[in-house]
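Lab notebook page, bench 4
Experiment: in silico fold of construct C2
Operator: M.H.
Input chain length: 94 residues
Purpose: comparison with the prior construct
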Amino acid sequence: MTLVEFTLLLLIAGLAGAAGQSIAGYYLGGCLVSVVVGFVGAYIGMWLARELNLPELLMITINNKAFPVIWSVLGSAIFALAVGLLTRRRPDLV
């Protein structure tokens, strides 16, 4: 995988992660966190699609590596929502 292909894959994952966080309404961090959320979201989304026997939608192939854009956005939203709900601040008891 060349540097350009790797950078393009990171860019797509970052955009998918940012879109997923935006849908969920929880922002977990900056650009690098969005890339990680995008990759985790791709894993969660593809697992969910396989379990429910759903088709692969909008696959982008870079150097024979397929990246599921729709499922990664959906998985990113699920992941960001779960992390946001688990880590939200509780009101201090005074």
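Observations: Strands lie at 59-62, 65-68. The radius of gyration is 15 Å.
Next step: discuss at group meeting.
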